[in-house]
Amino acid sequence: MKHTAYIVCLLAGLLTGCTGAETNDAQRDIKTDKEIGGKTISVSDRKESFNQDNKNGQFGYVRYQANSMPDDTQTKVPTIDREKTAHVISSLTVQLPHVQDAATLVTDKEALVVYQTNSKRREQTADQVKKTAASVIPRYYHVYISDNPNLVQSIENYSRLRSDSRDISDIMADTIQEMKKSPQGGPVSEDENANGETDQDQAQGPLQTNHK
């Protein structure tokens, strides 16, 4: 409404010399490339921009200028709700064709998904399951999947553990190696295998650099 008022006053001003508080406010809000040092960072002089009204169905939007980032935003690494993330992955996985059951364990840097399928195209189904999990978790996560339902109990047992549990790396590494006997889908990228591991990750072994 503020910008609309500005445009109306501007047009009227050509004939009547329209002035007023709304015109001044709108003019202050508009910045040109030259006024902000050649970088179009924001259309206003505010340091950040975001949707204040969190209505159902509304997109999420947040924008910061580099020199106005809050101190806690710069130093804290965002964390995810692992239980909710596991819920989303499992619920999406069982909606895939030929998948009847799915169990997911989410740690601090891994997602382990065990599913049951009657698909005759195991590689294709594995790729779909892997990509489904990868679409939910942060990019740095590794994804390990298996269509061996006997491994469901293994990852369920790990749900009682924590990232700082004793010998967690060695314990989970055995299960991950067992999971990798099942199809894992296609490579994530030219530099990463199907699980999102680089050559360095593979040389160090599963989980060796992830849990501290």
TrEMBL record:
Location of region: Disordered: 173-212
InterPro entries: Spore_lipoprot_YhcN/YlaJ-like
Any Pfam family hit: Spore_YhcN_YlaJ
Signal peptide (from-to): 1-21
Biased composition (Acidic residues): 189-200
Biased composition range(s): Polar residues: 201-212
Keyword line: Lipoprotein, Signal
Name of the protein this chain belongs to: Lipoprotein
Organism of provenance: Bacillus atrophaeus (strain 1942)
